[in-house]
Amino acid sequence: MRIQLVSFVAVVAIGLTSAAPHTLAQEDEALTRAKQSFAEGRSLYLQQKYLEAAASFLKAYEAKPIPAFLFNAAVAFERGQGYPDAVKNFKLYLEKAPKAADAEEIKKRIAALEKALADAQPPRDAPPDRQPPDRQPPDRQPPDRQPPDRQPPDRQPPDRQPPDRQPPDRQPPDQPPRVRAVVVPVLPKLEPKGVVVVSTKPEGANLYLNNKMNLLGPSPWQGTLATGEHTLLIESKGYRPEKKTVSVSPDRIVDLYVALSQEHYLGWVQITASSPGALIYIDDKGVGAVARTPYSGFLKPGMHKIWVEKPGFEEQRQEVEVVSSSTHRVHFDLKGLQHGWLSIDGPTAQGAEVLLDGKALCTAPCEKVVVQPGTHKILVRRKGHKPVQTELIVHKLRDYQMKVDLAPKPSLVSAYVAYGVAAAFLAGGITLGFLSKNIEKDLRKEIDDGQSLVGSNDGRILRGKAYAWVANGFFGLAGVSAIFGIYYTFADRGPASAFRVSGRNVAVLPEFGPGYAGLSGSFRF
Amino acid sequence: MRSKILPILSLFALLALGQAGCPWSGFDGVEKDAPVQVLERPEKFSSPQFGLRFFMLTDAGYERSIVVSGQYTDPLAVIKLDASGRIGSTRIARVDKNSVVLTDDRQKNLVEAMVRIGDSPRGEPRVLVGVPQYDYLRRVTIPETGSLLPEEARLYLTRPGGGELANLGGALGAGDLNGIGSLDWIVAEDHFTFFVMDENTSEATALQSCPVTTPSSASESMYRGIATGRFFEADPAGLQTAAVGFPRTSGGEVLIFRFPSGEVDCSADLIVPPVAEPGTKPQFGTALLAADLNGDGVDDLVVGSPDGANSRVFVFMSSGAPGSRSLQDLPSYTLMPSEVDPVDFGKALGLADLDGDGTPELLVGDPRASYRTNSGRVHIFRADWASGGAVLEEAFLGDPSPTAKLLGVDLKDATSGLGSCLGALDWGNPDWSGQELVVGASELIFVYFLTTLTGDQGTDDASGLPDPR
Q1: To the nearest whole percent, how much of chain B has pLDDT over 90?
Q2: What's the pLDDT score for residue A501?
Q3: How far apart are CA A428 and CA B18, in angstroms?
Q4: Which residue, B172, B151, B166, B177, is CA-closest to B222?
Q5: Cβ-contact B318, B326 below 8 angstroms
Q6: Is B441 on the interface with A (CB under 8 A)?
Q7: Which residues are paired to B309 by β-bridges?
Q8: Chain B neighbours among A 478-507 (CB < 8 Å)?
Q9: ipTM, 2 decimals?
Q10: CB contact under 8 A, B19 and A475
Q11: What's the distance, CA A416 to chain centroid?
Q12: Whether B7 and A419 lie within 8 Å, measured CB to CB
């Protein structure tokens, strides 16, 4: 194996807007101008010259079309009460960055601002030639232009002041009505964003944020990141992967340039799947997913196991032998699942045995046990608890959650007491029965022997009868007690075990995105 | 599941086993087979003195019927025994309030005497009962089935010459005294008026009466026992004679009346007790029994003389001499208890051929035999009357039983008033010719089925005892 080490690693210029520009020859001219304009805008913004700051941000955007510059310009316009321009630049920002994390928030802000502007509009009979100040496009507004309502009257240009302007109390009735002030509702405070610019040599390297699950895109990349420290993973075929830490601040442009060194030891693997976003496990599933499809990155030479899994699809596995300095394409054709899942849980169901159609399925709690579509009888039973059984119609790609509340079985103490009483009565009955029988036997013997005259009122007859009656009574009571015992043994007393089943669909939908197309899975509750 | 079912099955198996071993009705069988059936007063028979007086209707074909006297509104009951000797049915002769004198004291309204009299025109047996407290008689027809029929509310007799009757009906007798073939009634009262009534007459009036003269003072006289019998062997008319006991006279006496030509001969023969012990006052004549004990064709007379520890029973055997009174003046035999002390020994007399040898055993009642236990006693004398009257065996029922034995059989049943009335009935057992002994007590009647007696049946030898059935 031939290993060629890196020729050099050149990094990194992190340019601060206030700091001296970096000296790398590869620095983009446009980026330099953008940085200068951003620095000017930031400085003006801090001096509360918001409209001038907005113009600088727009200037930076013209130099480098990074949507964050539009956002910053919109924020500056809004702070400078240039609400129409703020709205316009917010809209442009959303147009350029439709998937921005704050897109929803910006939409609500645009709506609020537009409503405030509409409320400030003059009546419909206003002269058509009258151009309200907020109708002017922001790009035509001079940088030093102050909002009309904030300019002192003596600073108004002479041509904009009407010659016949009278004091308000002297204003004739046919004068056009004055524009009402824009009343903006209280909105969350926004601040200009910092900008991150990442460029690599060679271009086209994959950029990941914090881990390989979050692909930012190929280099060069410009955008905004949340304020704070971030780790960027940079990988490019044939080059050694790099990991860089950047500190994002709203008052500067982070310009990261990475010159990747060539990698000859590792192999380059491109993992794709028919459905994007599938989790990728390499060599050991226990460590968790390392990336999502599509993915490309380095692997050490040798045999590697690659798993791909995605909800709604069958898990697939392939083995690939990675050769140094070679490119390996691994594609997974994911197949949609044809079964459903069953999860069973509940505070009283721990350790309960779950039977599916009479066969053991799992021991609760069960997590996403595969169940074939169809009608199934599910029995959950646990020692000392009342079982619960239900019939469940399972559809494919549906995840059924079964919450089971197993009620404890009624105590058998009452049954044992009843059995004990029955046994006692039985023993008493048998004893008295034998005594009665013996008396009868003795009397019979005396009668049959003819040696004595036994009277029908002989006391032994009465005693024997009493024994027999009491014995029979005891037998009856024993029977009744036994029946009570049986009742207490088998009666379903107390609350019954209960369950609740909820299902959620795992849908497989076609999905298209930059650089990929395929199917995606989602849950529907 | 198996662990639950097994103990249950075991329990029920034991239950079935125990039930199988315990008799539900076994003792009912024992009661039926008991050789002594104890008859208790039927609930619908209101008389509490059940067992004091009864007699059998064997001569009327009612083999298993006992006529029991009562009191108050139930003067008479006929009890029919079932196959096991227990009370099968009870028929009561009731009287309404208008036909009987009701008193608060039930004891005073007691039927003191009963006697079997001639059959009704329809051939049904009749009995005559006496209520001495109110000096009237009552005649009751006993059909085989249905209700008992009192023929009239009362039968009153009138004392010849006027004067009130006293204790009329305390003792009754019946016999063909006038020789015309029908039973006549013999009724007396305490003033020695002696009535002989021919039942063939439709009127219940005194036929004849004779004031009896006795050595005793009249004030002490009170008749008690009446016995009719053929005491005169050679009476050409074959008339019966009547023995009437007057136990309350000094020492007691028995008068023998004859009825020549259908009329009473008031010159009665007098039998007095043998020499009494000094200081005693025997009730000689309290009970009389006329029977041919020795089989010579002439009736002999048995006289009870209860007198505490000096109680005796005298047997006057007839001599058999023709044409004259054959009854001897002195008793042929004097019987007394040999093992226990008597109290009222001789208060009641009876005959029963218990061992079926053809010679009746003499039964003597001692109803107050034991002061301690208030229980009575019955003495049974088995004797060879024909060859000199030697007592072959003596036994007794009652206290202090069961030491005494009869023909080798232990005797039991000591109870109050035992021996107040004695009788016998023939149960009709083809394997046993002996009679069943019937003994009355204060509130019970005992029927002794002595077919279980051991020994050689029908032998006169003392050692030869009847065979068991």
Answers
A1: 6
A2: 86
A3: 10
A4: B166
A5: yes
A6: no
A7: B307
A8: 478-479, 482, 485-486, 489-490
A9: 0.73
A10: yes
A11: 54
A12: yes
